[in-house]
Amino acid sequence: MQLTINIVVLAAIYALICCGYVLIYRVSRVMSLAHGELMMLGAYGLFATAGTFSGHPLIAIAVAAVLATMVGVLVYVALMRSMTGEAVLAAVLATIALGIFLRGAMVLVWSAQEQHPIRLLGWTNSAVSIGETARISAAALVLVVVTALAYLSLYFFLKYTVWGIRMRAAGQNPLLAAQRGIGLHGIYALAWALATFTGGIAGMLIASDTALDQTMIIIGLKAFPAALVGGLDSLLGALIGSLIVAAAEVLMIHYIDPLLADVVPFFVLLVFLIVRPWGLYGSKEELDRV
Amino acid sequence: MADALLVVEQLEVVYQRVITAVQGVSLRVEKGQIVALLGTNGAGKTTTLRAISGFIGMDDARVTEGTVTYKGERIENLPPHGVTSLGIVLVPERQKVFENLTVAENLDANVARVVKGFDRKRLAASVYEYFPALARLRSREAGYLSGGERQMLGIGAALMCAPEMLLVDELSLGLSPIMVSELMQRLLAIRRELGTTILLVEQNAQVALDIADYGYVIENGRIVLDGTPERLSSHQDIKEFYLGGGSTRRSYRDVKQYRRSRRWYG
Predict the structure, then answer these.
(1) Residue B177 CB: number of other CB atoms within 10 A?
(2) Domain region containing A95
(3) B53 touches chain A (CB under 8 A)
(4) B57 vs A181: CB contact, 8 Å cut-off?
(5) What domains are defined for chain B?
(6) Is it the case that residue B264 has pLDDT exceeding 50?
(7) Which residues of A touch B113 (CB under 8 A)?
């Protein structure tokens, strides 16, 4: 029972991070390798607003979420916009550079010390019992619920709203989308905003569940295999990929050796790249990306 | 003739900063007209249309000389969505539909020009009236459509942008003669009922001249001949090279010779 819960929680973490990778890849064919850092920036955003709006935790969270969204727009306008029309590799390298820059900047501003934004909000992360033997922390429970909500709303957004349809259209054929009056810069900025919003929320929740320090970047990196296993351009794939990677990781920790935890996602990724390189739900013709 | 809707003057387009695709194309389209732009493969027809409708970064192309004026406003090197929002919408030759989107989604995705009293639902309904075949395929993914259905969807989706002017690239490509003449009738109906101006690029000179009010012939990136359909279809060289038939066959060498002589300019 506890094992299942651990798998679900870890899968939810990866899935919430993954939808950022998937959204950006789907509309612009760019892999954002700064996602872990942007996620951490979102968590530090909560840390900052929790200090500013002490006593009003909800306001702090809302402001932090808005800030995370704005970071995405800013990243697009200031950096990625000039990369449209360039080779995809150039754009990917730009995101790596952005990641390195953010990592350094965050250490400079907030130091490498471990932080606990949840304490600043005045909340405690108590454990909730499920059944007789299993327990889940409150933050992890919220995380699972938020992930489910995020995926549901993204699904409905992409499937049924005009802007969601336009987003899919622009991802498929940017030139035709532009000829049909869709402003590509707006769509790309929207994708980045949604990615940093969900990523930021993931960062905040992970920081609330454990702590906020540099290791969060590694979590972001470990979610990347989950997205790739799923196929990178499919939300459903990301969800299932996260489950596979999380299950492998948790079972490995439980039955073999906890020290292997950080390696497992990449091991799963290797296996998938050999067996099914386009991922579970990815489009086969996209293979030239590797 | 100051009231022309679209005026292209001495257009020159360069790809990747070195390859000149068209040089010195001039043409004008009056409001409500159907104008045909004829030419063989690689003559510069598509490039001319793309130059009007706008390039995006990855095309790596630019209008380096000349002007494109739409309603008195210069539009060369505007981004495609800017041109579309002014009312000029392209139906491209290839990739005219979003293949993983359904027919209905293909119509919904478009951003319409700002017009008073615009009603997306009503416009979609009239698209389904022009192309009843699409109504039955509403929830089918566009990737599974036949060539003719794709062409209908391409035109229908372009109509959803509420265009004043349609640029249609190679309508007849890969379609049966019956389908082509049916689509041409639809274009006539669209012009008649919506007042849409149409610039038609074609290799198949016969079908284009059948419905056009005026025609241009482009070769090697230049306009070499223009006139009314009657004049063009009776022109000796058009008969020979575009319509088939004509007089005795000439050898390739004669053709080259004749191009060098630039007789068409006179």
Answers:
(1) 11
(2) 2-216
(3) yes
(4) no
(5) 1-87+165-170+196-266 (3.40.50.300)
(6) no
(7) 181
Contact B92 A177 (CB under 8 A): no
Q: Which residue of A has its CA nearest to B161?
A: A180
- Burial grade of B116 (CB within 10 A; 0-12, 13-18, 19 or more): exposed
Q: Do B111 and A183 touch (CB under 8 A)?
A: yes
pLDDT in tens, A229-247: 888 888 999 999 999 999 9
Residue B248 has pLDDT above 70, yes or no: no
What is the per-residue pLDDT for A64? 94
Mean of all residue pLDDT scores within chain B? 85
State the sign of the Cα–Cα–Cα–Cα dihedral B65, B70, B73, B76.
negative
B81 interfaces chain A, CB cutoff of 8 Å: yes
Mean pLDDT, range A244-252, rounded to an integer: 93
Order of strands across the sheet with B34-38?
Answer: B88-91, B165-169, B197-202, B34-38, B214-219, B222-227
Residue A242 lies in a domain: no
Q: Which of A63, A60, A62 is nearest to A122 (CA)?
A: A60
Interface test with B, best of A82, A180, A182, A185 (most B CBs within 10 A): A180
| Cα–Cα distances in angstroms (integers) from residue A169 to residues A155, A204, B75, B110, B160, in the given order | 15, 32, 25, 9, 15
Residue A238 lies in a domain: no
pLDDT of residue B162: 92
Nearest CA to CA, how far is B3 from chain A (Å)?
26
Instruction: Specify the amino acid at residue A125.
Output: N
pLDDT at position B18 is: 86
pLDDT attached to residue B113? 86
**Contacts B95 to A, Cβ<8 Å:** 173, 175-176
B115 touches chain A (CB under 8 A): no
In total, how many domains does chain A have? 1
Is residue B61 pLDDT above 90, yes or no?
A: no
Question: Which pLDDT tens digit goes with each residue over A150-195?
Answer: 999 999 999 999 999 999 999 999 999 999 999 999 999 999 999 9
Q: Which residues of chain A does B81 touch, with a Cβ-Cβ cutoff of 8 Å?
A: 178-184
